[in-house]
Amino acid sequence: MRAMPRVVVLGGGYSGVATAKKLQKELHFNEAYITLLNCHDYHYFTTHPHMNGIGTDSIEHTRVAISELIDEFKIDLITSNVREIRLFDKKVVLQDGILSYD
């Protein structure tokens, strides 16, 4: 039996969250290990900050917990900072550990 591939998505911005959601939709449960890596546990809506600045919206509407956007049964969210990406070793070095990917 072949081991499940390990996919690491770097960043919880628009593209990172969209990629993770696409993978969770397209792949069946236990078809791949998917990890979304972001320095915060929230997604920041970059189209809203001006509304906070002029007082027409609150900070609560500018960001949302990533756990509300993804299926945590299919995607593992890790909150950490990337220190180095080792392409040839297929490893991501974090401030507090190392992730391997395929």
CATH architecture: 3-Layer(bba) Sandwich
Give the biggest beta sheet: 3 strands, parallel
Number of domains: 1
Proportion of strand residues? 25-35%
Q: Level of helix content?
A: 10-25%
CATH superfamily: FAD/NAD(P)-binding domain
What does the average pLDDT come to? 87
Radius of gyration over C-alpha positions, nearest whole angstrom: 16 Å
Number of helices: 2
What CATH calls the topology is: FAD/NAD(P)-binding domain
* Low-confidence parts: none
* Spatial strand order of the main sheet: 1-2-5
Number of strands: 8
CATH class: Alpha Beta
User: Which assembly state applies to the chains in this document?
Assistant: single chain
Structural class: alpha/beta
The global form is globular
User: Topology as H/E string?
Assistant: EHEEHEEEEE
Distance between the termini: 16 Å
